[in-house]
Helicase SMUBP-2/HCS1 1B domain-containing protein
Amino acid sequence: MASTPVESFVTKQLELLELERDAEVEERRSWQENVSLKELQNRGVCLLKLQVSSQRTGLYGRLLITLEPRRCVSAAVLPSNSFTSGDIVGLYDESGQLATGILTRITQKAVTVAFDESHDSQLSLDQEHSYRLLKLANDVTYKRLKNPADVLQPRPGRLPAGSGPVRAVPEGTRHHSRAPGNWEDHHCGG
């Protein structure tokens, strides 16, 4: 069966979306391997020398950890950075990556990250220890763009988009007896 222009367009967009995502993941991986931590902090994608200021349980049992610059640092404010709420971040210590979370709040002096409830039992952080946060490739936008495009893809047993009648009301339900043109009440308000 020949593909329609819509199917060709959707297929091409999915390919391009996949390429863009792969490039972003590769760029972040390359940064981690080839660029110093200090340079990553200067680029605004890494926060170094953080310590835990609080841990608590948030919505849906997520572990919320607030990190701030080490107290021995005189400025005690976060360096200039590009972190925003919703970013996917990796939490690291000197041994490597400990967990991945979602940045929920950032101020000049602290950053709060939400971790899955599964990390609650595994993630044990010492308040005197030094940690770093690294911004990771965010696949949320990728998923938001990919899911609707997947719906438009033809699949066996499923009608292609726009190929048949669509019933907004399930069979067997009652319909309003008035025709749409009679819905207005012309006797209101004089």
